[in-house]
Amino acid sequence: MLENLGGTHVLVVLVLLALDVIALVQVWRDRRRSDVVKVLWTVVILALPVIGVLGWAVNWLLGRAADRLDRANGPRS
Fold first, then answer.
1. What is the pTM of this model?
2. Can you spell out the DSSP letters for 27-48?
3. Are 44 and 55 in contact (CB under 8 A)?
4. What is the pLDDT of residues 40-65, one digit of tens each?
5. Alpha carbon distance 67, 61 (integer Å)
């Protein structure tokens, strides 16, 4: 079964695994999210590795952009 795996396949699997680990670490280090949200993201990332990581990355990037916009606008009166 594994004899058909070439170097490129192994590299792709390792990159996907690394992205999964990075996403999971970032999910659990986020202090703004509740534990329920963290568990849901963990399930999505583990169940759907490629789609879960992409969804998390988009969500994370949009959240950071929103935080920057809030800081740029300053406190509201």
1. 0.74
2. HHH-SSS-HHHHHHHHHHHHHS
3. yes
4. 999 999 999 899 999 999 998 898 88
5. 10
